[in-house]
Amino acid sequence: MIVLQLLLYCLLFTGMVKIFVIGGAVNGLYFYPKEVQERAIALGLTDRKTVERKRKWFMTTFCLVMLVALVLIIRVWNGISTFNAAYWQALLFLEVMNIYDGVVIDKLWVGHSRFWVLPGLEDVPFVQTWRQVLIKRSIMALVWFAGAAVVGGLITLIF
């Protein structure tokens, strides 16, 4: 059952990204390196204010939806109510999501889909190297230890 839940959680992740870039990759310009963002703005594809507004809206909505989904999976679907059990299960979900983000989203989807190539910036590299992915995912792996504690705390406090 946990494998199915992990799969559904990662599909929710992908769905959230897909919804926020409806209409084209420029709607997700905040995902790109700063240099790419600056070039896109210079070309008139968008403006800094719009990029920041969309980034804030995405991050707020994404984090809230993913947090609520995780709490519901652990507490309601799996029936876990203790901090310790909730912590370890949350850590599993967050670390799998972390790896999924780096490998499936960053390297496979972004790296091999023409969707993410911005008009006028076809010559600009924007896909993270494996080294960049490993560094970012290693940092996030540490961050998720604290994130799992937040989820465990919410589960024990709210329910």
Determine the strand fraction and express it as a percent band: under 5%
Q: Look at the helices and sheets and give the structural class.
A: mainly alpha
Q: Overall pLDDT, averaged?
A: 97
Q: What is the CA-CA span between the terminal residues?
A: 22 Å
The radius of gyration computed from the alpha-carbon positions, rounded to a whole number of angstroms, is 17 Å
Explain this structure.
Helix content is 74%, strand content 0%. With 159 residues, it is mainly α. Helix 3 (48-77) crosses helix 4, helix 3 crosses helix 5 (130-158) and helix 4 (83-112) runs antiparallel to helix 5 (130-158). The longest helix is centred in the middle third of the chain and has 30 residues, at 48-77.
In short:
Helix content is 74%, strand content 0%. With 159 residues, it is mainly alpha-helical.
Which key terms come to mind for this protein?
159 residues, 5 helices, single chain, mainly alpha
Q: What is the strand and helix layout of this fold?
A:
Blueprint: H1 2-20, H2 34-42, H3 48-77, H4 83-112, H5 130-158
Helix pairs in contact: 1-3, 1-4, 3-4, 3-5, 4-5
